[in-house]
Write a structure and sequence with these properties.
The structure holds two protein chains of two kinds.
Chain A: H1 22-32, H2 44-54, H3 61-70, H4 75-84, E1 96-101, H5 104-108, H6 111-122, E2 135-140, E3 151-154, E4 157-160, H7 164-172
Parallel strand pairs in A: 1-2
Antiparallel strand pairs in A: 1-3, 3-4
Helix pairs in contact in A: 1-2, 2-3, 3-4
Chain B: E1 5-9, E2 12-16, H1 22-29, E3 52-57, E4 60-61, E5 66-67, E6 77-80, H2 84-99, H3 115-123, E7 146-148, H4 158-167, E8 173-175, E9 182-184, H5 198-202, E10 208-210, E11 223-228, E12 237-243, E13 246-252, H6 265-269, E14 284-287, E15 290-293, H7 296-309, E16 315-319, H8 325-337, E17 343-344, E18 376-380, H9 384-387, H10 389-400, E19 404-409, E20 420-423, H11 425-439, H12 449-454, H13 459-473, E21 477-481, H14 483-486, H15 491-505, E22 508-511, H16 518-524, H17 544-549, E23 554-558, H18 562-565, H19 569-578, E24 581-586, H20 591-596, E25 599-602, E26 611-614, E27 620-623, H21 636-646, H22 657-668, E28 693-695, H23 705-708, H24 711-714, E29 724-726, H25 728-733, E30 741-746, E31 749-757, E32 765-767, E33 782-784, E34 786-789
Parallel strand pairs in B: 1-6, 16-17, 16-23, 18-19, 18-21, 19-20, 21-22, 23-24, 24-25, 28-32, 29-31
Antiparallel strand pairs in B: 1-2, 3-4, 3-5, 3-6, 7-10, 8-9, 11-12, 12-13, 14-15, 14-25, 26-27, 28-33, 30-31, 30-34
Helix pairs in contact in B: 7-21, 8-16, 8-21, 8-22, 11-13, 11-15, 13-15
Classes of the chains: A alpha+beta, B alpha/beta.
Chain lengths: 175, 791
């Protein structure tokens, strides 16, 4: 949303040197430096990714609030970003995430079968973690790999043109 | 203008400014284009797609329908809002909007005045092709003012944009994605902004509705009655919605010069107390310590006889600053007709040494709309968001447009825009102003030489001085004195310093009125030193402080509660208890009035009387009564008219408020509002005293009897709960911690309360709100107090 008075900076009365960790702050600063000074909130996505990775794969409300405070933006604006994008998780997850694309190209090329396969074989619904805690299963919007549909994102690696057997092998390989 | 261009909408030639959006031109021309997300005061997002129209430019049609709210006009543009293609697009949008919208219009408060309902009549089908299940959204609790039914939300995001752009506090957001998108706070908290109620009006559907009004009436049962808000100095234009003699709710009326499209929450929800249980409905006379209801004529005859018999030198008239102009004019005519010049409306002012030098008719100094174009504003002693919510909004606009805002205040404020805050407690206010004066090169001569010479300007003071000076040379610099300055024991010095700074920087000085008709009180002559029309009074009467300190033997209290509306309630209650005769005209019953008065006269409250309020910028806004006062209560001007006739005073034969108003207006023809001082302010600082200093601010929902009695307003989290607010360091120095029970002693009286930690309060000070229950036994708003822990 582009507000008339963007960027809407909010002054948080928290000491920035107590937020997150020095290493994360340094990387966020490097990202923020790519944008005009008053637009440092543009770095919110890489910041959330970093924070999520350092928190075992999910974002707590406290962490999102810290990101908001660090980037001088309204907390709800961070919640908006974090709740919009499929790569952010707002509840604890397993160490691995298996994300199957459910958008049009993948759907036409069999991703629905993959989803059903995972649901039955591992007894897990989209958004849930398997009983043995091996992975969290997610159905996600377009991964941008339509050319080689169906696409599956496992952690940070794309796997394309997958059959159910290929996917099983990949899942077997997860520690 | 030569750079106007002409476009054609539905075959009509329309003048347009280049860059303007099609919908703005169409609105001006009265051509209806359906819309949900577009609002003239908010940014354009074009996300509802309801305003799709067919357009072509220079003979080349746009390939698809375009959103009228987000398509700028261009030369040789032709727009068709009702062509088959446009209507098909609008109907398509409507079908999508209705997919998830519940069909609960019969139980929806918005039913009958709903933009979605209206447009669905025009653009919706009579049956739905959608057979799947509809989504349901969990409601959030937004607090005591706003009710939610988020399943009805169509995601226009007007409420989100209002928060970001107008309120400046972005509490609402659109979280989730696709079908899971929802509007809310995400973390469930009540909205805490003084303008939050405006999102009720902005919501085009029934997702956000008024909680106090909920399920009490239907839109088609209500009749409209225009009114003026009776609280702050803005005089926001209201539309009262009335059913069977009862005000059911309050909406804003657009007035660009005054309140734009917004009203403050207290303007919107104070009406609830009109229908409350403690209205004064019949005249009461105290006989042998018990209240006896009597006929109006009997009570008025008693009052007339006692006032006429009283010694005018020891009679005092205290008039609430939210009384109507007509009541004020008649009250002073009565008082002066009885040779009594002791009449005042400055109930919370403490220092009256400046009376001789005060401008005769003080006002804001600029039109309200011009606040937003000031380049530099210095606010002196004003918790601006609490005191004047809509003026705070204008000043925020000035700050966002690049203007600089500085504040000299006893405690730090939560603001929603950049501002330089000089916070040094009540004593520090004088030092900060003196330092700014010194930074401007003042102080080599004159009455304030000593205090300015002692000041030590810092870089911050210098920056304020420079910004005032550069704005002043462009005629866009302003100093404003607020309610915390008026309650200051050295108010006259604050004024003197403000005028020195203003003179040195070429800025204007303005006064933030204490209430809806403070400016009118000057015009009507409700001041001991001023007659109607701004003429000087001779002899000069007693001010509020002198009336209560003397104390007077006979007192008239008009529309005020002595325990909550006066600067020093402890002293006032003592003085009133000692008086021989106290008559109070009030719309409400109130224990403090009942303990000191001998006669209570019921008068009509806001919405129950006709009259006029003069707002901060001197605009006379008159209104008619919308409902009848309850029981035997009568509009105040009628009560005063009868009293005047009973006392055989001449000229009390008015037939209506218009006659009173025109008589006063004739006296005011030559009286321009003018903030230039009548003389030099003189005097030495009295000092605020030694030890821990109380700062007694008046919270926004403690301003007057009406807001204090409104349950929804009192339940909000912004209510200034009574307590001792200390910063953590100061609390530790006093051996106190949060939530400790303490006894607060001021001027010999102790009250019991709790410690609350508030880092905005500077060291050496304790903020103890005034005007709220608990504060009625305390003394001056700014004075030394002592705090002792209780086990």
């Amino acid at each position: 949303m582009s507000f008339r008075n963007t960027p809407l900076a909010v002054v948080h009365d928290r000491d920035k040197s107590t937020l997150l960790t020095p290493a994360i702050r340094a990387v966020i600063d490097a990202h923020a430096a790519k944008y005009p000074l008053e637009w440092k909130q543009s770095a919110v996505m890489p910041a959330l990714t970093l924070v999520q990775d350092s928190n075992g794969g999910w974002l707590s409300r406290e962490l999102m609030d810290e990101v908001a405070a660090y980037l001088d933006m309204p907390a709800v604006a961070v919640y908006e970003v974090a709740s919009f994008y499929g790569m952010y998780d707002l509840a604890p997850t397993a160490a691995h995430k298996v994300c199957i694309c459910n958008s049009i190209s993948c759907l036409l090329n069999g991703s629905e079968d993959l989803i059903h396969h995972v649901e039955h074989r591992y007894q897990v619904k989209p958004g849930e973690t398997t009983a043995d805690g091996r992975f969290t299963f997610k159905e996600v919007e377009c991964l941008g790999a339509c050319r080689d549909a169906p696409a599956v994102l496992i952690d940070k690696t794309y796997h394309e043109r997958l059959s159910a057997q290929d996917l099983d092998r990949l899942i077997e390989g997860l520690q | 203008m030569t750079d106007m261009l002409t476009i054609e909408i539905d075959g009509r030639a329309c003048e347009a400014v280049p860059g303007e959006m099609i919908i703005a031109v169409a609105d001006r021309e009265g051509i209806a284009i359906p819309r949900f997300c577009y609002h003239k005061k908010l940014s354009i997002v074009a996300n509802c797609r309801m305003c799709l129209v067919e357009a072509e430019q220079g003979g080349r049609p746009f390939p698809k329908p375009v959103p009228a709210c987000a398509t700028p006009v261009g030369p040789c543009m032709k727009v068709l809002t009702r062509s088959p293609k446009a209507i098909e697009a609008q109907q398509g949008t409507m079908e999508f909007l209705l997919i998830n919208h519940p069909l609960d219009c019969p139980i929806c408060d918005q039913g009958g005045e709903c933009e979605l309902q209206d447009l669905a009549m025009g653009y919706g089908g009579d049956h739905s092709r959608y057979a799947e299940s509809k989504r349901v959204v969990t409601d959030e609790d937004f607090g005591p003012l706003i009710d939610t039914e988020m399943t009805r939300c169509i995601h226009c995001t007007r409420c989100v944009r209002f928060g970001a752009e107008i309120a400046g506090l972005r509490e609402l957001g659109a979280t989730g994605r696709g079908e899971n998108l929802r509007i809310g706070t995400f973390v469930a908290h009540a909205l805490a902004h003084e303008l939050s109620g405006n999102i009720i009006d902005l919501c085009p559907v029934g997702a956000l509705t008024s909680k106090p009004y909920r399920f009490t009436a239907r839109a088609w049962e209500l009749t409209d009655a225009p009114a003026i808000a009776p609280h702050d100095g803005v005089g926001a234009n209201l539309m009262l919605h009335v059913r069977r003699g009862q005000v059911m709710r309050v909406h804003p009326r657009d007035n660009e010069a005054v309140n734009e499209s917004w009203i403050a929450d207290r303007d919107r929800f104070s009406y609830v107390s009109l229908n409350g249980p403690d209205r004064l409905t019949e005249p009461l006379v105290k006989r042998d310590g018990a209240w006896v209801a009597v006929e109006s004529i009997e009570a008025l005859a008693l009052v007339a006889q006692r006032l006429k018999a009283a010694d005018p030198a020891t009679t005092g008239w205290l008039i609430a600053p939210n009384a109507t102009l007509e009541e004020m004019y008649l009250a002073q005519a009565l008082a002066r007709g009885l040779n009594c010049a002791n009449i005042d409306h400055r109930l919370r002012q403490r220092d009256f040494r400046g009376d001789g030098a005060d401008p005769r008719l003080p006002w804001l100094g600029v039109p309200i709309a011009d606040l937003a174009i000031q380049r530099s504003v210095l606010l002196i002693g004003s918790d601006i968001r609490q005191e004047q919510p809509l003026l705070a909004h204008r000043l925020r606009q000035a700050a966002l447009a690049g203007g600089s805002l500085a504040l000299v205040n006893p405690y730090r404020l939560d603001l929603t825009h950049p501002a330089g805050q000089l916070v040094g407690g009540p004593a520090g206010m004088l030092d900060d102003l003196a330092a700014i004066a010194k930074a401007l090169g003042e102080g080599r001569s004159g009455a304030l030489k000593g205090i300015i010479a002692r000041a030590a300007p810092t870089a911050e003071h210098q920056a304020v001085a420079d910004s005032l000076k550069s704005a002043g040379t462009n005629g866009a610099g302003l100093l404003l004195l607020g309610a915390l300055a008026a309650a200051h024991p050295d108010y006259s010095l604050l004024k003197a310093l403000a005028y020195r700074v203003a003179a040195a920087a070429g800025c204007r000085v303005g006064y933030l009125p204490a209430a809806a008709n403070s400016v009118g009180a000057g015009l009507a002559g409700v001041l001991p030193q001023v007659l109607p029309g701004g003429r000087s009074a001779d002899p000069v009467g007693l001010s509020v402080a002198e009336i209560l300190a003397a104390p007077c033997r006979t007192l008239v209290l008009w529309g005020l509660e002595p325990a909550y509306d006066l600067g020093n309630p402890a002293q006032a209650m003592d003085a009133l208890a000692q008086a021989d005769f106290v008559v109070a005209a009030s719309a409400f019953r109130c224990p403090s009035l009942e303990s000191v008065a001998q006669v209570l006269l019921p008068i009509g409250a806001f919405a129950e009387t006709s009259g006029t309020f003069v707002n901060a910028s001197g605009t006379w806004q008159d209104f008619q009564g919308a409902v009848a006062p309850p029981g035997a209560a009568r509009p105040g001007w009628k009560v005063l008219r009868v009293l005047g006739n009973m006392m055989d005073l001449k000229g009390f034969n008015y037939l209506d408020t218009a006659a009173i108003r025109s008589e006063l207006a004739a006296l005011c023809v030559a009286a321009g509002l003018d903030n230039r001082p009548a003389a030099d302010f003189a005097g030495e600082p009295r000092g605020v005293g030694e030890g821990l200093i109380r700062i007694g601010n008046v919270p926004t929902y403690a301003l007057d009897a009406l807001v204090r009695r409104s349950p929804p307003l009192q339940r909000t989290s912004t209510t200034g709960t009574f307590g001792a607010y200390l910063n953590a360091g100061q609390a530790a120095d006093l051996g106190l911690a949060a939530d400790d029970a303490v006894a607060v002693s001021q001027q010999g009286v102790a009250v019991h309360t709790r410690v609350l930690i508030d880092e905005r309060v500077p060291a050496g000070c304790v903020r103890i709100p005034a005007g709220v229950p608990g504060s009625e036994f305390l003394g001056d708003q700014i004075a030394p107090v002592s705090i002792r822990r209780e086990e």
